[in-house]
Amino acid sequence: MAARGLLSGMGCLFEMPAALGLVSRPYSTSQTFAEVLRLPKTQLTKLVFPLQELQRHLLPESRPVLHLKTFDPSLEDIARAESFFTATTRNRIEYLSSAEHLDHAPDLLRPEVCFIGRSNVGKSSLIKALFSLAPEVEVRISKKPGHTKKMNFFKVGKHFTLVDMPGYGYRAPEDFVNMVETYLKERKNLMRTFLLVDSVVGIQKADNIAIEMCEEFALPYVMVLTKIDKSSKGHLLKQVLQIQKFVATKTQGCFPQLFPVSAVTYSGIHLLRCFIANITGNLKTNG
Ligand code: GDP
């Protein structure tokens, strides 16, 4: 029943075997890419290229919608990107500082990427997953009501800085909007903004605050779909297609390809690391 409803809702874009209605189990929590490369091919694809895995269930003529070839690195590229995220004595990955205002942000020449999203979207979990090869890094969380929300800066070797922006809610306080807005508008070394959207519920009203900011300031940004382990493939595919349509028709600055991830199964994490290494100019990929 669910499959039929979905098919009519999405204009017959995909084939829906009955099994797709089931919530898929986490298949692996492998962290290092060397371990991932030892997985059977189907498992490897699910873990490393979650969009490719979803694409198999689309009718061939609808597949280009997913823009899979826009960023399509080789396994070698992904393996190379991992070294940037692996803490060693020569590649120190560490929390640098926090700031409430851009004036207090570290003045850095390194390229920077920032992560923004609604409270509870899974931002801390995603950053922890990206830094899983640097277990000493403490991803700070200040969720208690009344606590001042800050931007947290993390140094990733000599390569780039990753900024964890405070989560926004439906009624984002004005000073918070000002903080994020000033940062997005004025941070000179900001290479890319990663805007997190919960794949279970899709784009919410509060997400539009961030989308509108990125569009208004003509920033290049990327949509990352979190918690993909929580939904059935059918539900996830429906959300992906809806968000993809939104990106294609309503945005200018958003990267056409979506990045679905799970901080639980690590699905999509290796590809996202590779993308970050690529856009910060540290890794030239074929993708
Ligand atoms: P933040 O407020 O955006 O930093 O969100 P958190 O990272 O604290 O996550 C909010 C809730 O979602 C927590 O209960 C997490 O355990 C859960 N969560 C985050 N990422 C995932 C994910 O990929 N899969 C699942 N199943 N749960 C997640």
TrEMBL record:
Molecular function GO labels: GTP binding; metal ion binding
Gene Ontology terms: cellular component: mitochondrion
Keyword list, A-Z: GTP-binding, Magnesium, Metal-binding, Nucleotide-binding
InterPro entries (alphabetical): EngB_GTPase, G_ENGB_dom, GTP-bd, GTP-bd_ribosome_bio_YsxC, P-loop_NTPase
Keyword Magnesium carried by entry: yes
Keyword match Ribonucleoprotein: no
Record SUPFAM superfamilies: P-loop containing nucleoside triphosphate hydrolases (SSF52540)
Domain of life: Eukaryota
Cofactor: Mg(2+)
Domain EngB-type G, chain residue ranges per copy: 109-282
Segments forming a coiled coil: none
PANTHER family for the chain: GTP-BINDING PROTEIN 8
Family per similarity comment: Belongs to the TRAFAC class TrmE-Era-EngA-EngB-Septin-like GTPase superfamily. EngB GTPase family.
Protein name: GTP-binding protein 8
Native organism taxonomy: Eukaryota, Metazoa, Chordata, Craniata, Vertebrata
